[in-house]
Design goal:
The complex is a heterodimer of chains A (about 425) and B (about 100).
Chain A: E1 16-17, E2 22-24, E3 27-29, E4 34-35, E5 39-40, E6 45-47, E7 50-54, E8 57-61, H1 69-77, E9 85-89, H2 95-98, H3 101-107, E10 112-116, H4 120-127, E11 135-137, E12 142-144, E13 149-154, E14 164-168, E15 173-177, H5 198-209, H6 213-223, E16 230-233, H7 244-253, E17 267-273, H8 279-291, E18 297-303, H9 309-318, E19 321-325, E20 328-329, E21 332-333, H10 335-341, E22 353-360, H11 366-376, E23 386-389, H12 394-412, E24 418-421
Parallel strand pairs in A: 8-9, 9-10, 10-11, 15-16, 17-18, 17-19, 19-22, 22-23
Antiparallel strand pairs in A: 1-2, 2-7, 3-6, 4-5, 7-8, 12-13, 13-14, 14-15, 20-21
Chain B: E1 3-8, E2 13-18, H1 23-30, E3 47-52, H2 62-70, E4 77-79, E5 88-94
Parallel strand pairs in B: 1-5
Antiparallel strand pairs in B: 1-2, 3-4, 3-5
The chains are: A alpha/beta (about 425), B alpha+beta (about 100).
């Protein structure tokens, strides 16, 4: 028999045992097909919440989406009384985990709320209650339930600033929030019982965790030393069968897929362009030639027309610098450029070098628009974009080469100390 | 108008600015790696380290102090979108 009893004989939702002291009190949402606008889910998701019982009280870890609160409360009531709640922990404040919180706090006014240091202003923004009492916690902080302890791990940006994990050393259970989770709804609940959810695990990582790879690796430094028998996550199957496999997979996914052939002092500069009459292409080639003059810069030149967006996103994720070339058509940069730019939210671009260029017919505002977008994506754009009216002259080709040269020097820190007047910027 | 200088150590650029200029008005244009999110003192994305001339910047507001605290900012950290250059010499760098 492979099923898990989620209801009692009367059809009332009941808690599911992870151990004698720990129960799942979450909810199944099998009808959900789109999560947070950006994610598809072919069979829904789960909102996992847990209750852990110590000799001196009970803790509730996370809640559920508001519309599923009745299942959550019924499951809680099947294993504990509200007067027993000493502690409420929120590992993540997104509404699908905090929807039942206001009512839970009303039913258990004595409970102390524990949230991460970075969650404080978010909590007020979500609940709109100025008088809310809570304790902000960091790595090293813990709370005792008598013979059970909850230790907090500061794991921010997985995938919001507020996220944290909570560990019970006596139970060897990591309550990980969204980390290691996925949108997959299966009433068998546990990874050794549910259907094949590997695709969902990888898909969830690629959209939710990928922009925060460095934070994933920092979190794994905290998680690796723990002795973990179960990962009790916030969405999808509970990982009680060989949970280390999923931790290892997160490390793999957060590390470069194929180590490049660069030596330590080399940097990569990618030039992407698209061109209707070949003018922006001529500029791109001249910029490429200019950049090539700087030693230790590995420059690549790509025509956007000849490739798919996804592999370009992979390239950009690991590059040090990005230069984009776009014509201006009807007062805008062209769609393939915007398609690429709108696909970059899944990777971390912070502090990469950016630059923009392009040929234009009569207005040329596309270059400035793309510069603004690059800054919005948190690239640094230190050299004003280069525009050429229609066909570049020989002199303008030299300007393009100089533009590429300066950007490559900037990338390598070779431009030297400079003094500038604000008015000249 | 009174002038001041602000040096962005990560790119080795010094800019002479009018007193009262906010760091955000300068750092993006010169290409410093100080990055911005909300640009209005709420998100903490633009936390920077002030390596010299701390007293030549405007005092942090109560709101900025709160954001710095919640983001566990270190000593001599400020929000680049809030700090104004008042005079003298200042050096900053991304955290």
């Amino acid at each position: 028999m492979n099923s898990v009893e989620l209801e009692n004989a009367a059809g009332i939702p009941k808690a599911v045992e992870l151990s004698e002291r720990v129960h799942w009190i979450g909810a199944l949402d099998s009808n959900l097909r789109t999560f947070d606008i950006i994610l598809k889910t072919a069979n829904g998701t789960t909102y996992n919440a847990y209750v852990i019982r110590g000799s001196e009280g009970v803790a509730v870890i996370d809640t559920v989406k508001e519309g599923f609160a009745s299942d959550f409360f019924a499951r809680f009531e099947s294993v504990a009384d509200y007067s027993e709640i000493k502690v409420i922990v929120l590992n993540h404040l997104e509404p699908d985990h905090t929807g039942a919180l206001p009512e839970l706090m009303r039913r258990a006014p004595q409970a102390q709320l524990y949230i991460s240091q970075k969650a404080q202003s978010m909590l007020k923004g979500l609940l709109k209650q100025e008088e809310l009492r809570f304790t902000p916690v960091l790595t090293g902080n813990s709370v005792s339930l008598g013979d059970r302890t909850l230790q907090f791990l500061h794991t921010p940006y997985l995938h919001w600033p507020d996220t944290q994990c909570t560990f019970s050393p006596e139970e060897q259970i990591l309550f990980s929030g969204d980390v290691f989770g996925c949108h997959f709804c299966d009433n068998r609940l546990f990874n050794d019982k549910v259907g094949d959810f590997r695709f969902s695990f990888e898909y969830y990582y690629s959209y939710i965790m990928r922009p925060f790879k460095s934070y994933v690796l920092s979190a794994l430094e905290l998680i690796d030393p723990l002795t973990i028998s179960t990962i009790a996550l916030a969405h999808g199957p509970i990982l009680r069968d060989r949970p280390q496999r999923y931790i290892k997979r997160y490390r793999e996914l957060s590390s470069p897929a194929l180590h490049s052939e660069l030596s330590e002092n080399q940097k990569t500069l990618l030039i992407f362009y698209i061109s209707s009459y070949g003018n922006t292409r001529k500029m791109a080639e001249a910029i490429y030639n200019g950049a090539m003059q700087v030693p230790d810069v590995r420059v690549s030149l790509y025509d956007l027309e000849g490739g798919e967006v996804a592999p370009f996103v992979d390239l950009i994720e690991e590059a040090d610098g990005l230069i984009l070339g776009t014509p201006t058509i009807n007062g805008d940069a062209v769609k393939p450029i915007w398609d690429l730019l709108s696909s970059l939210a899944v990777v971390n671009l912070k502090t990469k070098l950016g630059g923009v260029f392009g040929s234009y017919g009569w207005t040329g505002e596309g270059v400035r628009m793309v510069e603004d977008r690059l800054r919005g994506l948190k690239l640094r754009v230190p050299i004003s974009g280069l525009r050429v009216k229609l066909i570049p002259t020989d002199e303008e080709i030299l300007e393009c080469e100089a533009f590429g040269l300066e950007l490559a020097k900037e990338l390598m820190g070779l431009r030297g100390a400079r003094e500038i007047n604000f008015e000249d910027l | 108008m009174a002038k001041a200088t602000i040096t962005f150590e990560d790119i080795n650029v010094t800019v002479t600015v009018p007193a009262g200029t906010r760091v955000i008005e300068v750092s993006e244009k010169v290409g410093s790696a100080i990055t911005y999110g909300c640009r209005e003192g709420d998100c903490g994305t633009c936390i920077m380290k002030v390596t010299d001339g701390w007293n030549n910047l405007s005092e942090p507001s109560v709101l900025e102090d709160k954001v710095l605290r919640e983001n566990m900012a270190g000593k001599h950290n400020r929000l680049a979108c809030q700090a104004q250059v008042l005079g003298g010499k200042i050096s900053v760098k991304p955290v």
